[in-house]
Design brief:
Rhopdopsin 7-helix transmembrane proteins, 13 helices, G-protein coupled receptor, transducer, about 350 residues, membrane
Length: about 350
């Protein structure tokens, strides 16, 4: 979310330090664009073109791919501005960073919602079926994207184009006070990481014992796929928010422990480039995970594995108990029918005996 601060420090960098970091950042961002943009486009095209009956999980994956794609298509502009300078004006800088923040917040919320839905589907299948019947997903998605827009609003007044020895760059946040910076960074860390990640840990902590016990292989496969998305989210976002936490500590101790605050700020500045690049990698990694999960589904050139993967997820989501409940109901029905069939011959014999007793020869 604070993608400007990811690639800069609160103070201006030395030119040679900036050049080295820029080269690494440009390479990572370029690879992220080349891999992630086509990958997310493929996911969107596959779902819209080949998956007619879309489950809630597949719809959430579709929204996640769209949010990631919107982030990735801005990378050529970032690469150009890092290699040269920002020439698009401050208004476009604010607009682009705002859009990236919206998409990043929505990605976090979508992954969290996907995990909660998976938890409910596995642990409480009847509640999951009720959620499906009520068709509440559209309302939840509207609320989710609205929340992403609202939480991104602080970017608009604070994002600025800063001047350094290499020219202008859209890499800085300008806060009017320490209190404003504290609130903005704390809000971003809590809403964008701490609360969602806590929910994810609780959901998958409760599901760990159930994943290996699942009856249907398809149920286990889709649950493990979503778990891998969650793990990738944690790996990609944790360094960035560690930097945010270090910023909060620096703000808290800079007056009383100035030397310690300077040391922490130096550490945060050093990891800023890597943390920023990993945030963009998070928008690239999901299609790769789908490809790995789809390897066992590929049956022909016309019907690719990723198509069958999303169809499979749709057939087993959102209530993984669908098949089990139908199986149980069929089994109960068969038992009832067999008991009726077994009782019919006995009833017929009793009738014959009574007829013989009433009509002796």
């Amino acid at each position: 979310m604070n993608h400007s601060a990811e690639l800069s420090t609160s103070e201006k960098m030395a030119p040679e330090e900036f050049d080295g970091g820029t080269a690494v950042a440009c390479v990572i961002l370029g690879l992220s664009f080349l891999v992630g943009a086509p990958g997310n486009l493929l996911v969107i095209w596959t779902i819209l073109r080949h998956v007619k009956q879309r489950s809630h999980t597949v719809i959430l994956i579709l929204h996640l791919a769209a949010a990631d794609l919107l982030v990735l298509i801005t990378l050529p502009l970032w690469i150009y501005s890092l290699a040269h300078s920002w020439v698009f004006g401050e208004a476009s800088c604010k607009a682009m960073v705002f859009m990236i923040n919206v998409c990043m917040y929505s990605s976090v919320f979508l992954i969290t919602l996907m995990s909660v839905e998976r938890f409910v589907a596995v642990r409480y299948p009847f509640a999951s079926l009720d959620w499906k019947r009520k068709q509440a997903l559209n309302k939840v998605l509207l609320a989710l994207w609205t929340a992403a827009f609202l939480f991104s609003i602080p970017v608009i007044p604070t994002q600025v184009v800063g001047q350094d020895s290499d020219g202008e760059h859209c890499l800085y946040r300008l806060y009017t006070s320490v209190a404003q910076e504290l609130v903005c960074v704390l809000l971003e860390t809590l809403v964008g990481y701490v609360i969602p990640f806590s929910i994810l840990v609780v959901c998958y902590g409760c599901l760990c014992s159930r994943i290996t016990q699942m009856t249907f292989k398809s149920k286990r496969k889709s649950t493990v796929l979503i778990a891998s998305i969650v793990v990738a989210f944690g790996i990609c976002w944790t360094p960035y928010h560690i930097g945010n936490i270090l910023s909060l500590i620096v703000l808290a101790i800079e007056n009383s422990f100035h030397d310690a605050a300077q040391s922490l700020e130096s550490v945060r500045s050093t990891m800023a480039f890597i943390a920023g690049a990993m945030v963009f990698i998070s928008s690239t990694v999901n299609p790769i995970l789908y490809m790995f999960a789809a390897r066992s589904f590929r049956s022909s050139l016309r019907d690719t594995g990723i198509q069958k993967l999303f169809r499979h997820i749709s057939s087993t989501s959102p209530g993984e108990g669908n098949r089990e409940m139908s199986f149980v109901s069929k089994r109960q029905s068969n038992q009832t029918n067999s008991s009726l069939c077994a009782s019919e011959p006995k009833d017929q014999m009793n009738i014959l005996i009574k007829m013989c007793e009433n009509n002796p020869s």
